[in-house]
Amino acid sequence: MSQGAPSCISLSSDKVKACATQAWPEVQRYAQGLPKPKISALAPFFPTDACAAPINAAVSELTRAETSIYKTGGFVFFPGKSYVGRKLTLVIPLFMEGETSIAGLAIDMDHFYQVSGKCDVEVSQAAKLVALIVDIE
User: Fold this and answer.
1) What is the mean pLDDT of residues 34-38?
2) pTM, whole model, 2 decimals?
3) Does residue 85 fall inside a structural domain?
4) DSSP states of 5-44
5) Which domain range does residue 91 map to?
6) Number of independent structural domains in the chain
7) Residue 70: which pLDDT band, with cuts at 50, 70 and 90?
């Protein structure tokens, strides 16, 4: 892969996984109730206070230092194709059913993901991914 090409790698962290598991009940009812938009496979939601813990844990795991410039959001990915990623983006799954991939890499609940560049998110039919997205400046 050439330098600067879009990519996605999985990262493992017990702390991020535990924090995401604790955050899910707080956003579950709202995120599960969002309808699929008519023109997109992506529906945004505002992260709750409980979402700060997995976001902060993932940022500190990745950078090993305090990073203060980042933008966050919550998203429900519905069946179809959408995109995620900028220069450096973290994807923290909160809930997943069915098969989902980012840049061809299968997503699971045991990892969080570092995305470099704009990458495809593909969600299979009858599947759904609820995730926190962190764009790091």
Assistant:
1) 92
2) 0.91
3) yes
4) --EEEEE--HHHHHHHHHHHHHHHHHHHHPPPPSS-SEEE
5) 7-34+43-131
6) 1
7) confident
